[in-house]
Amino acid sequence: MRVTMIGSGYVGLVSGACFADFGHVVTCVDTDAAKIEALNRGEIPIFEPGLDDLVAKNAREGRLYFTTELDEAVARADAIFIAVGTPARRGDGHADLSYVYQAARDVVAKLDGFTVVVTKSTVPVGTGDEVERIMRETRPEADFAVVSNPEFLREGAAIADFKRPDRIVIGTEDARARAVMEELYRPLYLNAAPLLFTSRRTSELTKYAANAFLATKITFINEMADLCEQVGANVQEVARGIGLDNRIGSKFLHAGPGYGGSCFPKDTLALMKTAQDLAAPLRIVETVVAINDQRKRAMARKVITACGGSVRGKRIAILGLAFKPNTDDMREAPSIAIITALQDAGAEIVAYDPESMGPAQSLLPDIKYAADAYSCLEGADALVIVTEWDAFRALDLARVKTGLREPVVVDLRNIYRSEDMRRRGFQYTNVGNA
User: Half-sphere exposure of 285 toward its Cβ, with a 13 Å CA cutoff?
Assistant: First the structure.
């Protein structure tokens, strides 16, 4: 089948490359000429494990193309995916749908024959209705169906998630559109990936509900971690004890500095605002958003306490800047709030991250960046582990202790054992383990 992706960002690029790897012919369209030129040179604008090889392979084999020209890409497509950004709107927190609506106007003008137009972007309930209204108003004679097909990709594991999904949610009640979507995803039948067909509005809400629920699990275990510190319990053992219950499950029960990234902060806020507007407020989600916002700076206070109550004039080494491992994504990363709070308290910051230091420099221009983990901590008064990259899980602890001015380690991801670290002479602080 011929597939067109409108938008060559994270979702569009990963989805396009994976569809091409299934054997479809995919054209990724973007208004950013510099990005398209870079992609045509084989330069990938984001870090996602395996994506560069997947793009190169399918471009080489003639199944994946990149262009700024919309006309031919749309006219020849069986399915067109709108995969543009929906950032939080300034002022009120609602999703900014201007890019989605503009894509709808641009696409409908070029349609030729029956075409399925799919919203892949994360959009509030009712967006598909408005996309269809805009398209029919712009070109009443066009033959198309608007479908919702939200993505459930985890950064750092997006290719595996696309090719071996837990489920594929498709919102349509149009028989022709259903047939097209079934054919698009037919290569996944061997993996027994369930295609869940729903109404369009149900599909849109399912995406937000999933992210809000996962954000709630993270926030719940973070609050339990605070309680564990007060009563002398171990949050990791608590998480394992409840996670072994199949009704609860073990995933997203890892205490830490709060969630970040491109999805959870934006999506929980947008869902909360939509619910408030419809007089059906989601009090749990409202609380989750508030707790997560407060938690990041609370982690800076944990560092200050570990340093004896003050970090003024002290050098603090930060390992990990991206919001999670295996990505260079700095959007809403806990490191930003933590570093800013430490600077407000008078600390000098030096940081290292395997992939995200480039994107971080525009957000954190007034800190020092190190070449590796050991040069980062050299001469520091404390080491703070913010992102659990594999490279930080087995540091040479003797070298760490020698490099630090004071043996203070604050592990916000619980990747080391308290007993072992204290036996080695570290003043060790983690999350949820007094």
Answer: 23
Q: Which residues pair with 2 in a beta bridge?
A: 25
End-to-end CA, the chain: 57
Task: List Cα–Cα distances, 2 to 80, 117, 265, 382, in angstroms.
Answer: 9, 13, 34, 55
Q: Which helix (H) or strand (E) holds 369?
A: strand 368-369
Q: Within 10 A of 276 (CB to CB), how many other CB atoms are there? A: 14
* Residue 138, φ and ψ in degrees, nearest 5: -70, -40
Residue found under tokens 């994270």: 10
Q: Which amino acid is at 302?
A: K
**Cα–Cα separations (whole angstroms), residue 180 to 76, 117, 143, 170, 356:** 14, 11, 14, 11, 38
CA 404 – CA 386 distance, rounded (Å): 17
- Interior angle at CA 47, CA 74 and CA 296, nearest 5: 115
Is the overall model pTM greater than 0.90, yes or no? yes
CA 398 to CA 285: how far, in whole Å? 44
DSSP string, 275-311: HHHTT---HHHHHHHHHHHHHHHHHHHHHHHHTTS--
Confidence of residue 106 (pLDDT cuts 50, 70, 90): very high
DSSP letter for each residue of 37-102? HHHHTT--SS--TTHHHHHHHHHHTTSEEEES--HHHHHT-SEEEE----PBPTTT--B--HHHHH
Q: Give the side-chain half-sphere CA count within 13 A for 212.
A: 23
Report residue 272: phi and psi, to 5°: -60, -45
Q: 196 with 141: CB under 8 angstroms? A: no
Of the candidates 18, 28, 228, 263, the residue annotated as catalytic is 263
Angle between helices 51-60 and 10-21 (to 10 degrees): 50
| 28 catalytic per annotation | no
- Amino acid type, 145: A
* pLDDT tens per residue across span 19-56: 999 999 999 999 999 999 999 999 999 999 999 999 99
Would you give the distance in Å from CA 14 to the centre of its chain?
A: 13
**Host H or E run for residue 350:** strand 348-352
* Phi, psi at 187, each rounded to 5°: -60, -20
Q: Is there a contact between 364 and 333 (Cβ–Cβ < 8 Å)?
A: no
